[in-house]
Amino acid sequence: MRRRTEAQASNREPVNAGRKDPDQSVHSQAEGRVSYGSVLMTIGKCLLLLVFIPPFLNYASLQREGQMLLPKDGQIVDVGLGQKMHLLCKGQGQPVVILDAPTGMSSDVWVHVQESVAVLTKVCTFDRMGLGFSKRLLPNETTGTEKVWGMSTTGRMVDDLHRLLQAAEIATPFILVGSELGALNGRFYSHIHDAQVSDLVLIDPIPEDAFEDDQWTDYWYGKLLPSLQARQFSAATGLSRMLIILGVIEPTVKGENVSEEVVQRQKYLLSNPAHQSSAVDEHYFLNESASQVKDITKFKPLSSRTSVSVITGDSFDQDIPEHLNQMVAELQKKFLEESYPSANHVHIKGADRRMIYKKPSAISQHLRKLVNRRQAKQQSE
C-alpha cells in the first residue's frame, strides 16, 4: 500500500512540474506591460523635448543675439507714436542717398552698395517696421495710422519712413532708391513728398497691375507665400536654427567680401519668427500696396523736378517661369510709359531682382553718377 502511494505521487510529479504557476504567469505579464509602458513613456519624453527645447533655446539665443548683432554704426531712432526704427548711415556729404530694401528683406542686402557709394556722400539704410531691428508694435498697441493705411502696406511704410527721416534730421533733397516693394514705396514717397526727392531710382519695380493677372496671383499666393509661411513656422519652432547649424539654410548675402558680422546677422534674422512674420505680411499685402501706388500716381503726378531712373536685368526673377517674367516686363514698360515717360532706363546684363547683392557694382556705378551730377550742380549754384 505504501509503495503504491509513493508510485502515484511520483507519477503526479511530472504533471505538476509541467504546469505554470498562475502567480508567476501574472507576474511575468505585469513585467511585460511595465516594460512596454516604460518604452512609451521614454519616447513621449523625447518627443516633448524635441517639441519644447528647440523653441526655448532659439528664444534664449535671439534675446542675446539681438543686442550683440545690432550694427555698431546703427541707431534706434524714436519716430514717435511709440515706434522706434533702425537706421544705419555711412559717409558724409550731400545729397544723401536713401536705400529701401526688397520685399521682406532687411537693410543688410545693401551692404555692398552702401559701402561703395559712401565714399562720395552720406548713404542711409533702414529696416522697415517689423523687419531687422525695427520692432513692430504689439497687436494691442496702435499708432492711429491704421485708420488710414493697413499694416505692412506702402502707405504705412511711407508714413514710417517720413517720420524716420525727419527724426534723424536727414538733409533734403535726397536720392531715394528702392527695389521691388522698396520701389513701390519710393514712388509713393516721391509723389507725396516731391520737394524732398531730387532723384528716384527704381530697381526691378513691381508693376501695380501685376496682381490683376491670374497667373501672377497664383504664383505669388499659391507658391511664394506658402514657402515664406513655412519659413516662418520653421523659425518659430527653432527648426531654422538647427538647419542653419547643419548648413541646410544659408544666408542670402554671402561671399568673401561679406563680413562675419553681416553673415551672423542674417542667420539671426532667419531664426527670428518676428522678422519672418513681417516678411510674410509684406508679401501678403503687396497687392494692396500696388493698388495704393496706382491710386496716388493718378491723384498726384510726380514733380518735373524729380528725375527717374529704372534699373532692370534680363528677367525679373530667374527662378520663376519665363511667361511670368515676360508678363512683368510688359507691365513694367506700360507703367513707365504712362507714369514716367522721360525715365532713364539702365539694363544690367545677366541680372535679375537679386542684383543689389549679386551685381552691386553696376548699381553703385549708376548711383555714383547721380551723386556726382548733383554735387556738381550744387557747386555751380
UniProtKB/TrEMBL annotation:
Protein name: AB hydrolase-1 domain-containing protein
Domain AB hydrolase-1 intervals: 95-217
Membrane-traversing stretches: 34-57
Organism: Zoarces viviparus
Chain spans, region Disordered: 1-29
Keywords, in A-Z order: Membrane, Transmembrane, Transmembrane helix
